[in-house]
UniProtKB/TrEMBL annotation:
Residues 1-78 form the GST N-terminal domain. GO terms for cellular component: cytoplasm. Keywords: Transferase. This is Glutathione S-transferase. PROSITE patterns: GST_CTER, GST_NTER. NCBIfam families: PRK10357.1.
Length: 204
C-alpha cells in the first residue's frame, strides 16, 4: 500500500500513527498539494491528503476513512471499539480533534496565502474561537483520566495528539499547554510512543 501525504499535515500524521500502531506496513509518498506540479488530483479529485492507494490500486480518502480502514487490517492494538456507543464516543473525539485541525489550517491559509491587506481578521478570530472552544471541551472531557476514552489508547487519543501537536507547530502563541495541563500530560505520554516520535513534523 502507498500513503500519499505530507510530513507536516496533522491528518497524514494521524493515519501514519494508526498504521504504525497496527504494525501494518505502508509506503509514504510525499506530495505537496500546493505545488503547481502536484498530481494528487489523479488519486483524489478533492486534491487533499492523505490518500491511501490500496494493494489493488483503489484510492481511499479522507483521514477518518483511512484510519478506520487501517484499524480493520490487523487485530493488533484495536483503536476503534466494536461496541456501537463506544465507537461513537471515540469517533466524536476524533471529530473534535479534526475540527481543531480544520480551523487551524483555515487560519493559517488566511495568514499565509492572502496579501496582508486582503486578510480577514474576523475570519481568523472565528477560527481561533473554534480552536479554544474545542480545547476547553477536550480538557473538560479528559479530566483526570489517563486516556480520552476507556482504559487504553484509542483513535481518540491519536487524533487529539495530532491536533495539539499541529498547534505547537503552527500556532505556538496559543499556549494550550499552560491553559490545559491535563492535555499536555496526555500529549507528553503520547510522545513517548515510537509511533508519535517517528512522525513528529519537521519544524521548518
Amino acid at each position: 500500500m502507498k500513503l500519499i501525504g505530507s510530513l507536516t499535515s496533522p491528518y497524514v500524521r494521524k493515519v501514519r500513527i494508526v498504521f504504525l500502531e497496527k504494525k501494518v506496513d505502508v509506503d509514504l509518498a510525499v506530495e505537496n498539494v500546493w505545488a503547481a506540479d502536484t498530481k494528487i488530483a489523479l488519486s483524489n479529485p478533492l486534491g487533499k491528503v492523505p490518500c491511501l492507494i490500496s494493494d489493488d490500486g483503489e484510492a481511499i480518502y479522507d483521514s477518518r476513512v483511512i484510519a478506520e480502514y487501517a484499524d480493520g487490517l490487523s487485530p493488533v492494538s484495536k483503536l476503534i471499539p466494536s461496541d456501537n456507543r463506544e465507537r461513537a464516543a471515540v469517533k466524536t473525539w476524533e471529530a473534535l480533534a479534526d475540527g481543531i485541525m480544520d480551523a487551524a489550517v483555515l487560519a493559517r491559509l488566511e495568514r499565509t496565502w492572502r496579501p496582508a491587506e486582503q486578510q480577514s481578521t474576523p475570519w481568523v478570530d472565528r477560527q481561533m474561537e473554534k480552536i479554544q472552544a474545542a480545547l476547553r471541551q477536550m480538557s473538560a472531557q479528559l479530566g483526570e483520566n489517563a486516556w480520552c476514552h476507556g482504559n487504553q489508547m484509542t483513535l481518540a487519543d491519536i487524533a487529539v495528539g495530532c491536533a495539539v501537536g499541529f498547534l505547537l507547530l503552527r500556532f505556538p502563541d496559543i499556549q494550550w499547554q499552560t491553559q490545559y495541563p491535563n492535555l499536555d500530560t496526555l500529549y507528553q505520554k503520547l510522545l513517548q510512543r515510537p509511533s508519535f516520535s517517528a512522525t513528529e513534523p519537521p519544524k521548518a
